Amino acid sequence: MSFKPIKKAVFPVAGMGTRFLPATKAVPKELLPIVDRPLIQYAVDEAREAGIEEMIFVTGRGKTAIVEHFDVAYELETTMSERGKDLGVLDSTRATPGSIITVRQQVPMGLGHAVWCARAIVGDEPFAIFLPDELMIGEPGGAGCMKQMVDAYEKTGGNLVSVLEVPHEEVSSYGVIDPGTVDGNLTEVKGLVEKPAVADAPSNKIVSGRYILQPEVMGILKDQEKGAGGEIQLTDAMAKMIGDQPFHAVTFDGKRYDCGSKLGFVEATLALALQREDLADSVREIAQRILSE
After folding, report:
1. Are 251 and 185 in contact (CB under 8 A)?
2. What's the mean pLDDT in 226-232?
3. How many CB atoms are closer than 10 A to CB 232?
4. Is 154:3 a contact under the CB 8 Å cutoff?
5. Cis amide linkage into residue 22, ω under 30° from 0
6. Are residues 248 and 154 in contact, defined by beta-carbon separation less than 8 angstroms?
7. pLDDT, tens digit, for every residue of 256-267?
8. With pLDDT > 90 as the criterion, what percentage of the chain qualifies?
9. What is the reported pLDDT for 46?
């Protein structure tokens, strides 16, 4: 059986980034660099690897720099060319004309509301969602998170979320799945709970910032009431689709870094620097020196 391909992705990037103030007072948190690439670039590259062609940025005030990052910088490129510098470092920032679309989330009402803001562009097609704060890095030589999910979708259709296992005492910070039948890296999803109390959590498998959803979720979000935190929760809308459509979780084979937190951001920077041949030895020496002082 064949299913409609995943060609569109929604990136909710309207958040104010208050946990990273004052750095994010004028710079969107999605443009903060992990080594030398901004967070949003990692997410867009992951989408491209999975065959996604249309990137939908749900933005807010002060977020125009995100779109400009993927525009052509004529002055910069001309200056670099005149000075004999390699323009290849900018290749991944050049978007195919028409592939970047933006829509405003004018009021911060939660992730579900941000996704709903993209309804006219999504239309009647299945689509992916990326939370750029969640930096998902595949194993060396392996596929990225969304590519793993698209591969699974081509077998199952329906809706999918990426999941990771965390210590049980940490589940109240995340959306958690109620697991059913397990088949390799695929788990049937029987239910979803947003930020449950530890005692009430149905598992320790948390939703980790990547989704493939059918367009019917938009109709549910239209009338969705506020949930945890007084916001319109995407998890609540997805839970209503379970039973009506196939719903699975893909256990991600790779590493997740929570770059919405300062510690996660530092960890990601160090870990990715240590994976770079041009930086690893020097970074290791610097870290050892600092730790010995």
Report:
1. yes
2. 68
3. 20
4. yes
5. yes
6. no
7. 999 999 999 999
8. 56
9. 95
Higher pLDDT, 85 or 268: 268
Tokens of 250: 């893909």
Q: Which residues of 35-73 are buried (b: 16+ CB within 10 A; e: fewer)?
A: eeebbbbbbbebbbebebebbbbbbbeebeebbebbeee
Give the torsion through C-alpha atoms of 195, 199, 201, 207, to 10 deg.
Answer: 50
CA distance 29 to 132: 9
Give pLDDT tens digits for 21-67.
999 998 999 999 999 999 999 999 999 999 999 999 999 888 889 98
Please tell me the number of Cα atoms within 13 Å of 284 on its side-chain side: 8
Looking at per-residue pLDDT, the higher value among 73 and 146 belongs to 146
Q: How far apart are CA 195 and CA 167, in angstroms?
A: 14
Nearest one of 180, 183, 154, 177 to 165, comparing CA atoms: 177
**Angle at alpha carbon of residue 104, lines to 99 and 105, rounded to 5°:** 130
CA 46, CA 135: separation in Å to the nearest integer? 10
CA contacts within 13 A on the Cβ side of 124: 0
Pure H helices in the chain: 39-49, 64-69, 74-82, 111-116, 119-122, 145-156, 216-222, 234-239, 262-274, 280-292
Enter the DSSP assignment of 25: T
- Alpha-carbon distance 154 to 138, whole Å? 19
Strands 254-258 and 205-213, bridge-based pairing? unpaired
Helix (H, G, I), strand (E, B) or coil at 230: helix
Query: What's the whole-model pTM score?
Result: 0.91
Alpha-carbon span 149 to 133, nearest angstrom: 18
CA neighbours closer than 13 Å in the CB half-sphere of residue 226: 6
CB 178 within 8 A of CB 203: yes
Percentages helix, strand, coil for the chain (3-state, rounded to 5) are 40, 25, 35
